[in-house]
Design goal:
single chain, mainly alpha, Rhopdopsin 7-helix transmembrane proteins, two-stranded antiparallel ribbon, 4% strand, globular, disordered C terminus
Length: 309
């Protein structure tokens, strides 16, 4: 969604990437807003901790999409203060999104370790404070150092250069953004690999008469895990040399439509299983203890009142 400072790209590629990103961000934001509407206005029962964490990721992504769509308009106004503010807010929302990717991975790890029964006092509150405050510290430091402002994305034709509000220092961009995400990626990709292995094992254990349904759920689970943990952002690591332009296209397409994929995943996970009654809860308590994070994997309803909630 953003280009590294001081790099040149062809005007044709820039136009295509810009068009794909704007359309994708618009659709992404639309579907993210639907998820928020469903969560806050339609739900009838108390959400699980997993769903609450997912909603915070949706909020961060929605803010990121909104600020990106507004970015070029603010940059064209040539207002230095406004451009710095938008750049800082957009950077904050991006770092917050990265942080929530890591939180999703940590939450899944905790579910694996505790067999789906995480017992931490004010768990979600602590996670929220850490996830929203940590990026703000980085952004405030960069604001003080004056690292935000108008950035020019250069093409072979100077008249077709595009301006945006972003980080003006290339070294800061690579150290902070790439470095920050690299740490997140190690955690999320490791967790994704573990969960994918778990899904494959789970699939083998299904009965033959349920194979088709479980195959569909597993596919949605894999897609949901990729989106929730930001694995697709890893294509940014290949944006060098001959792979730079192809990786830009793959990165832009996958991440621009991330909100749409999250909506599909959220809807599937929300409606995949009907709510349990008290009788069914008692009869299936043993099986639930062996199902790790069912709501995050798309194998269960995220709005189930689990014991102790």
């Amino acid at each position: 969604m953003d280009a590294p400072p001081n790099e040149t790209i062809s005007s044709a590629d820039l136009k295509k990437l810009t068009t794909i990103t704007k359309i994708g961000c618009g659709l992404s934001m639309f579907f993210l807003c639907i998820v928020l509407f469903m969560h806050f206005l339609i739900r009838r029962t108390k959400a699980t901790d997993s769903t609450k964490i997912l909603i915070h990721l949706v909020l961060a992504l929605c803010l990121l999409d909104l600020l990106f769509l507004l970015n070029s308009t603010v940059a064209d106004m040539k207002n230095a203060v406004g451009c710095k503010a938008v750049a800082a807010l957009m950077h904050y929302s991006m770092l917050a999104t990265f942080t929530w990717f890591a939180v999703q991975a940590l939450h899944l790890c905790l579910q694996l370790y505790t067999k789906g029964n995480i017992v931490i006092n004010r768990y979600v509150l602590k996670v929220c404070l850490a996830s929203w405050i940590t990026p703000s510290v980085i952004v405030v430091v960069l604001l003080i150092l004056g690292k935000y402002g108008e950035q020019v994305i250069k093409t072979e034709n100077a008249s077709e250069n595009v301006t945006m509000c972003w980080i003006t220092d290339g070294n800061v961009h690579y150290i902070v953004n790439i470095g920050y995400y690299a740490i997140v990626f190690v955690l999320t990709f490791t967790t994704f690999t573990v969960m994918l292995s778990w899904l494959c094992i789970n699939k083998k254990n299904q009965k033959d008469d349920k194979a088709v349904n479980k195959n569909e759920i597993s596919l949605m689970s894999v897609m949901g895990l990729c989106c929730m943990m930001g694995v697709t952002w890893g294509f940014a690591f290949f944006a060098y040399g001959d792979l730079r332009i192809p990786s830009y296209y793959i990165f832009t397409v996958l991440n621009s439509f991330q909100g749409f994929f999250l909506f599909i995943y959220y809807y599937k996970s929300r409606s995949s299983t009907p709510p349990r009654t008290c009788e069914s809860d008692n009869s299936t308590s043993a099986s639930r203890t062996t199902t790790i994070g069912p709501d995050l994997l798309g194998l269960d309803n995220p709005y189930i009142n689990t014991p102790g909630k």
